Amino acid sequence: MVRKIAVAFVHGVEIDDPHYADTAIRLLRKQFAHHVGADGARLDDLLAIRSVYWAGVTRTGEKQLLARMLGESGDRFFATLRWLVTKLNLGFQSALLPFGLAILARTVPAVRGLHYPALRWVAIDFVGDAIAYQISPGERRLYDEIHAEVAATLHELAAEAGGDAPLCIIAHSLGTIVASNYLYDLQVEQTSKKRLVPAAVRRHMGRTPLELGETLTHLYTMGSPLALWCFRYPDFGVPVAVPAPLLGRHHPDLRGEWVNFYEKDDLVAYPLKPLSEKYRAAVSEDHEVKLGGILSSWNPLVHPWYWNDERVIVPIARALARTSTQLNGPTAATDAAETA
Question: Which of 67, 68, 116, 210 lies at 20 to 30 Å from 284 by C-alpha?
């Protein structure tokens, strides 16, 4: 029987599109097929891919704040900004120039009051997600609702790929924080009596090894602000373990990796190994990449480009192809073709 690998994409800020990962998924499937030797039409027998979409949890509050601070007359302008960002996240560099010009505009006729409305939209829409995700004393509703979206997606993956399928998580920007926190909570529960996963999240979970994080083999973080997030903890806290500590119960022969992709011009992204000895041991590699094209490769606007660039996707696909071969043997592609 051919065994699948489960892959979950986790987005960060600046997303308002459930299909944000479509380009990345297409590139991953193409490169995986090339490296594993499978016909592209047979890939569903080897990979199960889902994208976590949690932006809807914070969107209503951010829109309300935007309307109260800058008025409702600029709705069309802000809708255009969202459309441009959606295009950027799908890899369309043609959207970069109009978006950059909008950011620099001090005033916009359709928007009253405060100056630099596009930059303020960025602050509210982008930074607002990070602020909303924080746990405060007595208030963790949004944090739990975001984690519930992760749990629901992993539940879908377990149903499609099998409850003990190896799990790969590919996360970007604030999504790297979401993924790290989610996995950390699961791993602490496995090694202690602490109950970190609340009922609001647990009701979206099954009890399969995949959903409990026990089959985590690969973690790919990109454009990650994890270094900034962790500086509030002594010695930058405790990183998640990759592969999962309990992976050997289900796949004793598999080996995983945590690769952190960063671009030097991306102000959000930082390497992770220098944080501490624990991170040096946990992270397999801080992988510096050069992203984007002529308009973005030299400035901070490179931040959205990671998972739409083959320089990132190719090493991920290559690693998943190796794992698929370990999981199924060298004839995995042939077996997949025969069972399709």
Answer: 210
